[in-house]
Write a structure and sequence with these properties.
Structural class: mainly alpha
Order of helices and strands: HHHHHH
Radius of gyration: 36 Å
Strand content: under 5%
Length: 171
């Protein structure tokens, strides 16, 4: 019984693999150019990453990411789907498109990292400057002996212990 099931499964798999005639999609009449396709996929990548970070903000603004991309590039969903299918069948072209998108994203990443590093340097220099001012105040405090320092009104004086030996207990 198990041998016959294995045999049937093998026959079905071999028949399904032989029938691998995938037709090449026809070139659409309104094919999106390769350069424009790079821009569309680049924008899709940016919007998808933004949706992951600020999904609530996008939802609250009532922005539809797909509609935004279609309006920005003056295309429709059918035109994009047909062009994407056509380019996906031609793997070399599709790979070139995605490599170009990847290069653009990496370039943007380096640009934003440089901006972030510059902002961090500014914050560090401000912190270093203000830290120096606080250090000078601490140095002044160290110059005044503790016994001559006035108590700060914010901090209460320490609690003194009362001598309880003189208290008489009632009986």
């Amino acid at each position: 019984m198990i041998k016959t099931l294995k045999y049937i499964l093998l026959v079905v798999l071999s028949i399904s693999c032989k029938n691998n005639n995938i037709e090449k999609p026809k070139k659409p009449d309104n094919l999106i150019s390769k350069d424009k396709m790079v821009e569309v996929i680049y924008d899709i990548s940016l919007i998808n990453s933004a949706k992951g970070v600020n999904k609530k903000l996008i939802e609250n603004e009532g922005i539809s990411p797909e509609d935004y991309i279609y309006k920005r590039h003056d295309i429709d969903s059918l035109q994009f789907a047909l062009s994407n299918e056509y380019y996906a069948y031609n793997l070399k072209i599709y790979e070139d498109i995605y490599n170009t998108v990847k290069e653009k994203l990496e370039k943007d990443k380096k640009h934003f990292q440089a901006i972030t590093e510059a902002e961090q340097k500014i914050k560090d220099s401000i912190n270093k400057k203000t830290r120096g001012e606080f250090d000078s105040l601490r140095k002044i405090d160290k110059l005044i002996p503790k016994k001559n320092r006035k108590r700060d009104s914010i901090f209460p004086s320490p609690i003194k212990k009362i001598d309880t030996s003189l208290i008489k207990i009632r009986q």
